[in-house]
Amino acid sequence: MRDKVVVFYLALFLRFGWITGMFFRHISPFSLFPDSERYRKISLYIQGKEDAEDEMLFSGPGYGAFLALLKNKEYLILRIQAILSAASCVLIMILAEMLFKNRKISLFAGVFSAFSLTSISLSASILTETLFFFLLMLSLVLLRKNYLLSSFFLMLSVFVRPAVIFLPLILIFFLPRWRERIVYLLIFYIPVLLWAGRNKAVHGFFTFSENGIRTASLYLAGEVLGDFGKVEDKGTSWEKHRRDVERVKALFRHPVRTAYFYVKNVILNIFARNELYEDEVKASRKFITPVFQYLWIAFFFALTIAGIKAGWKEGRQETLFLLSIYLYFALISGISFLQNSRLLFPAEPARVIFAGIVAGRVWRKEEGESFPLYIFCGNLISLVPCFLLQIFSSLSPVVECLWELAFLAGTPVFWIMSLLWRIKNEFHRKCITFSWLILVFFYIFYHISAFEETTAWIVFLYIVYIPISVAIMIISYIAGAFLFLLAQGLQKMLFWR
């Protein structure tokens, strides 16, 4: 239970901090992304203040109802979404523990999801993903415990984001009895069919949502037919529907080109980076660079693949369950592109749990070893001076170099502390050292490429400020040790075991 509480507050702290950074810029979240305005119109339509039938036909009423419930108050919406996002991290931990009965896997999966940049930036956006993901996680966690509630929450999620409309056809195979499977489908699809009938009465054609066919028409068909970006999205809902149907039918006349662009889009979406943060907190561009993101994506993808193999030994059915979720969202993403990491975000539980399996296997303690928790506390506290320096980095490039070197110095200090506490895992120390060398090379290359020519002054800065950076890190670790001992004392006083 303590692990889940810590991960929840860690995730909440990161998301609240990110949202605070946004409001320092005095920007409206509704103005950041075009989709946000559509959801605002739907919420006003639900409140009887504006006509938005076409918008609701495309996106569904779920997220608009959520905004209407919160009266479109930006600060309140983002704070509630931050809480839902942090709660989703805990739900991922519960799912991992249910599937593999392993505390380490659960803990690592929760930490990975808490630090997910996509999850953090989406919680600070007026977009459907955070609410949708929370409902999806509730459904997955309850699938084996209470299939009736699982189907109910999945039904709610499809009204928020129609992407899961075919997911029940996969999930029912993880239910033991045919009776449960049929009831599961009925609970999900009866409201879906009723809403499609309502759309038939209002718009003249039977459909739950135009999201899928419109996306396939404008994006995938646009690539195959060579007119991407040239199709005008005008006309009545019936005219748009007829146009989209004809364009999707045209895909079958070009099977080779369709297959090529579809597979290309799936691959691109798997490796897509997050770009939302650049608009939300512009200062983050200085330390979350595209190259760094792509390196992390490649590393995490490798962890996911290794986790699938390792998970197969832990439990085949459990691994197949997660893999089916990952493949479902990866395959439906092939009809679109240019959506950054949003499209594959619903596959987050599969990715972080698979990565958690690998991390749990690597991080093994032998008999008699002791790894003090305050090393981790110090590592987290070391971020405080780093971020404080980054805030003032615009005053001087020297300060920016100091901040980056302070960050880089953290890993070798981490490694030295491991040696001092007799951590005998040679593989662990080599991995840490190798990752540090990659980071050093990356940041030095980044700085050199940012200047027209490498001057002796820049080289001098890198040499002189290394010992200062190490000193900052050591002080941070000492502070971490102090706070850990203080927390340990409070724990004994409160009998928190």
What features would you describe in this structure?
With 497 residues, the chain is mainly α. The chain folds into two domains: 2-209 and 254-362, no CATH class; 374-494, no CATH class. It has 23 helices and no strands. It has helices at residues 2-23, 34-46, 53-59, 62-69, 74-100, 103-114, 117-123, 129-142, 147-160, 168-171, 178-203, 211-225, 237-251, 255-270, 276-280, 290-314, 316-332, 348-362, 374-381, 383-391, 397-420, 426-450, 456-494. α9 runs parallel beside α11 (178-203) and α19 crosses α23 (456-494). The longest helix has 39 residues, at 456-494. It starts with a helix and ends with a helix.
Structural class: mainly alpha
Distance between the termini: 10 Å
Would you report the number of β strands? 0
Uncertain stretches:
365-376, 448-454
Please tell me the total number of domains. 2
Principal-axes shape call: globular
Spell out the helices and strands N to C. HHHHHHHHHHHHHHHHHHHHHHH
* Rg on CA atoms, Å: 25 Å
Roughly what fraction of the amino acids lie in strands?
Answer: under 5%
Helix content: over 70%
Oligomer: single chain
Mean pLDDT: 77
